[in-house]
Amino acid sequence: MTFPSHVKLVEMSPRDGLQNESSDVFEGMVPTAIKLELIERLSNTGLTHIEAASFVSPKWVPQMADASAVMQGIQRRDGIIYSALTPNLKGAENAIASHAGEIAVFSAASEAFTEKNINCSIEESLSRFEPVIELAKAHNIPVRGYVSTVLGCPYQGEVSPNEVARVAKRLYDMGCYEISLGDTIGTGTPLSAKRMLEAVSRDIPINKLAAHFHDTYGQAIANLYAVLEEGIGIIDASVAGLGGCPYAQGASGNVASEDVLYLLQGLGIETGVDLDQLITTGYWISDQLKRQNGSKVALAKGR
Ligand SMILES: CC(C)(COP(=O)([O-])OP(=O)([O-])OC[C@H]1O[C@@H](n2cnc3c(N)ncnc32)[C@H](O)[C@@H]1OP(=O)([O-])[O-])[C@@H](O)C(=O)NCCC(=O)NCCSC(=O)C[C@@](C)(O)CC(=O)[O-]
């Protein structure tokens, strides 16, 4: 078994982490200043990729309504890519106008989830992404592609690895430079994660694939270990385990960045990220949101 020597961590907390936050503390919206301070603190940890906001309909996801203010307010650092999620051309235009360093499009391997999440079929979502990718190319901005529900769907249940592979390949062939595979509701297990990855990596080089696992069933770290064994070198995670998709009921947070980093350090895998700084940031945002910190490593190590 050979693990990669280096893993790229993609930090999700400002976008996936906060998009579903129904913060009582702030009567709904998390203030832009808190989002910006979170991004600033994350920028001090050694992370090189931070998904900072999403340019989606504010009627669908009110928490991301200040995406332009967030993207424009970031104190940008050399060597850090601040990316934004975009569902359509309108979102991409706004993201690019707000200086997103990378944009991401998102579909799913389940028709039912795609309808609930972005109000169209998988096929329609892919055609919406064509002009997005074209526009990004014209601006020299890389595009990441997400496939959600890769290990289970909240509406249709089981999802076939072949369908995940099909959607992932379409996104890759359309020009997405990296495909992130989302276990949106965290129902995957190490074996199902490996089987899914085997199917996807038949068509797409493994170094172009990212694991984006939620920890709803407590399997995310085990699933990550399984896909690291297969050669995955890009992992999405969210500090303090923040997050959840508004269109996947019961879906809890992303796997905690602190827990992923602890796993990687134990395997001798380099990331360039400082665990203590990450833990401090996780406690800071948990305090702001008056939430229990969702990272087991942070709880064990303490403040
Ligand atoms: C895709 C749409 C817009 C379709 O929504 P729709 O209602 O079908 O769209 P529409 O084109 O009919 O537009 C409706 C209204 O939204 C506006 N609108 C339209 N587009 C935009 C835009 N980009 N930015 C701002 N406003 C926009 C548009 O202008 C219009 O405004 P109105 O005329 O009624 O005032 C909607 O369904 C939507 O925004 N969905 C986003 C859902 C979402 O953000 N889900 C969470 C992210 S995915 C996720 O978390 C999973 C992931 C990626 O993390 C991986 C994993 O874990 O699996």
UniProtKB/TrEMBL annotation:
<protein>
    <recommendedName>
        <fullName>hydroxymethylglutaryl-CoA lyase</fullName>
        <ecNumber>4.1.3.4</ecNumber>
    </recommendedName>
</protein>
<comment type="similarity">
    <text>Belongs to the HMG-CoA lyase family.</text>
</comment>
<dbReference type="InterPro" id="IPR043594">
    <property type="entry name" value="HMGL"/>
</dbReference>
<keyword id="KW-0479">Metal-binding</keyword>
<dbReference type="Pfam" id="PF00682">
    <property type="entry name" value="HMGL-like"/>
</dbReference>
<dbReference type="GO" id="GO:0016829">
    <property type="term" value="F:lyase activity"/>
</dbReference>
<dbReference type="InterPro" id="IPR000138">
    <property type="entry name" value="HMG_CoA_lyase_AS"/>
</dbReference>
<dbReference type="InterPro" id="IPR013785">
    <property type="entry name" value="Aldolase_TIM"/>
</dbReference>
<dbReference type="InterPro" id="IPR000891">
    <property type="entry name" value="PYR_CT"/>
</dbReference>
<comment type="pathway">
    <text>Metabolic intermediate metabolism; (S)-3-hydroxy-3-methylglutaryl-CoA degradation; acetoacetate from (S)-3-hydroxy-3-methylglutaryl-CoA: step 1/1.</text>
</comment>
<keyword id="KW-0456">Lyase</keyword>
<feature type="domain" description="Pyruvate carboxyltransferase">
    <location>
        <begin position="7"/>
        <end position="279"/>
    </location>
</feature>
